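Appendix B, Record 12. Input sequence as logged:
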Amino acid sequence: MAAASHCLEVSENDKQSNVTTPSTMKELPVITTNGDRDYRLEDFEIKKTIGTGTFGRVCLCRDKLTGAYYAMKILEIADVIRLKQVEHVKNEKSILKQVIHPFIIDMLWTTHDDTSLYMLFEYVCGGELFTYLRNAGRFSSTTGVFYAAEIVLALEYLHKQQVVYRDLKPENLLLDREGHLKITDFGFAKNLTDRTWTLCGTPEYLAPEIIQSKGHNKAVDWWAFGILIYEMLAGYPPFFDDNPFAIYEKILAGKIDWPRHIDPIAKDLIKKVLVQDRTKRLGNMKNGADDVKKHRWFKGTNWDDVLNKRVKPPIAPKVKSDGDTGNFDDYPEPDNHQKSPPLSEEELELFNEF
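Logged structural output:
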């Protein structure tokens, strides 16, 4: 399994380092309005925890008024501040408000109270691509092409919106009821017109320029795309070790062992995106994503059909009902009696606009 994502913030202005660790959550209270409907927290019944991220918990919840199911991401403000994630959380909200795409999770509403932040998402019931990959061992080239194509279109869209995603990995790719992808968890995403110096991501998926603190741009998403294709086809990433620093050394050395069964055409694409020099990395050159889309591995792909979900997915998730959580792992539920530390007015003001 890939190591957890982490983010070490180094902005041009202050060059301060902030490291993230997992947080804990608690019960829901009340409040505010947003979007087409006046949502309130008491409109939702929390059913079950379906995911725990680097600094949050995601729960399946049910709308008491309509009976519809949604996913609610809950973050304790005290943890967000302590782990220096204020800007990341604000980025996640602002970016998800601006993006609409078939292969990107849909955020419907956000609010906060005096202890926590809440983000309401569509419920994507098929589970993580990671789970299907581990159960299969590895994917066929045909399956790899299908999911890679949906990711290409999502990355192309994000990059046109001047957004770098920075956390592409199988754990952040959900399957909907039909088996199409939804990219989730935009905690490390950032609006970017030039470069950033934030050390963000999962060790196995980090591009060389992130490790070397050279400043990075949207090219890091194409590097991660190459790692993902390799992992889908091999069953494991090309650079791995128990020690993150050993992983970094392997990435910078750039030596890849190629399993015999990997399709030579897929191998050619992987090699062209896993190029150390980002100016020569496929996807990051003058023609952008078009260079990737025109690669021989995608020969026969009708990109309009992919975008409009007219291609039948190779994986059909088993879903019994709209609120079925069978495709997600079980997680311990939070202690609802545990009190959060009181927050100062200054701390609460950080999220006035949330």
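The radius of gyration is 20 Å.
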